[in-house]
Amino acid sequence: MENREYKKVIEYVKSEIAKGTLQLKNKLPTERVLAEELSMSRSSIREALRTMENMGMLESTQGSGNYLTGNLNKMFAESIGMMLLLKQVSYSEVNAVRRALETDAYVLAMGNITEEMEEKLKELYQGMENSEGDQKILKDKEFHYLIIRASGNKLIISIMEALEEIYEESVGHILKTSSKETKDQLMRCHKKMLECIIGKDEINGRRALDEHYGIIEGQC
Amino acid sequence: MENREYKKVIEYVKSEIAKGTLQLKNKLPTERVLAEELSMSRSSIREALRTMENMGMLESTQGSGNYLTGNLNKMFAESIGMMLLLKQVSYSEVNAVRRALETDAYVLAMGNITEEMEEKLKELYQGMENSEGDQKILKDKEFHYLIIRASGNKLIISIMEALEEIYEESVGHILKTSSKETKDQLMRCHKKMLECIIGKDEINGRRALDEHYGIIEGQC
DNA sequence: GAATATTTGTCCGTATGTATA
DNA sequence: CTATACATACGGACAAATATT
Known about the structure:
The structure is a homodimer. By secondary structure, the first copy, chain A, is mainly α. The first copy, chain A, folds into two domains: 3-68, Arc Repressor Mutant, subunit A; 90-219, GntR ligand-binding domain-like (Four Helix Bundle (Hemerythrin (Met), subunit A)), CATH 1.20.120.530. Chain A has ten helices and two strands. In chain A, strands 1-2 form a two-stranded antiparallel sheet. In chain A, strand 1 (58-61) and strand 2 form a beta hairpin. The radius of gyration of chain A is 22 Å and the shape is elongated. The relative contact order of chain A is 0.10. The model of chain A has no long low-confidence stretch (mean pLDDT 92). Chains A and B meet through helix 1, helix 3, helix 4, helix 5 and helix 8 of A and helix 1, helix 3, helix 4, helix 5 and helix 8 of B. The structure holds a DNA duplex.
């Protein structure tokens, strides 16, 4: 069907946001009030509220009310996870998206990164070298995501954080099972990434990231 | 809340897909049967079905049933549209994601493109030169999306198609209101993109796309 | 084509758990 | 602690669209 009743509620919420009368963290009218105002049953209102909750638009708290939130990023993980489950896309294709976005983020980060961040990156890199197992994987992730966050592009950050959940087993597994040679290769990539972001060397930085993702791709 | 009843239904559907007992286009058990099997009320079942419908996982048809579909891409448009509405991300940031993904798609397309596609691209380019207004915008879009589809990466295609809806007014508007000089500049980019994809010249092809998006960005 | 059964769409009423004043 | 407001969940009823006989 196309003409769904519950879409009226979503349209209502959107218009209230557009008008400025509904803002983040604000409480929505109660279900009964919404039902009356929009001339719908509570059931239909609730179906709409559920979809919006699932989307990350709002959060419902029993006994209190429905509050506008803005956690839309979790939907990226849901959608792509479902696509993977239905085999509509492959892990390799998801990986290509990751590479494209992280490369872009890396270049953007080059222009934004502060000295504090550079120090933190060095710290994380050293941490990677001096640790093993889960600890190393954690430092690795922090290394990448510090750069991604430093890009300042909130959409890229959202998507990459969503994809992090999907990959945390898969890539983690790769890192655990790969040979020492592969691990050393990855460490050299990280070192180059670190050097190039400090030295603002975009070309070699891109190469390091490309090599990094090439190794990951090869282990899939 | 975290422990939502309706999530049981989503988990149920996911597990059926994983087991292979539920496939695309298949009909789900009726709402009443689901209610009985999962020991829930029909209302709760319906809330779950609605969220899944909204997600693009299934389609409900009155009098018939609920059928598993796989149109997850529409959720990308919804989520990003909502982020834009809430001003959590800017059009400029969305543009950066488009650039990153289209550039990746462009390079992938270089390796996949057939002679027929190249002919079609030439045709579209000529069509752009020889037309004006909405017709020109349409050819422009077709030109870009032929390349994107030629990339073969179904996730990139999904995301870009979702972003197309969001940008179709915004970019269309830019093309309508920009000066002749800007338009000529864009045409030169398209020409370079065409030449480089045929000549497998990745470096200059990337440059052409970068220039193209730089112009779009400048008009925002 | 018509009649009947099935299934989703919508609504209402009620009971319960939770948050808030 | 009490009372009120609110979301959560259930079950029943009827309408509307579809499928089946």
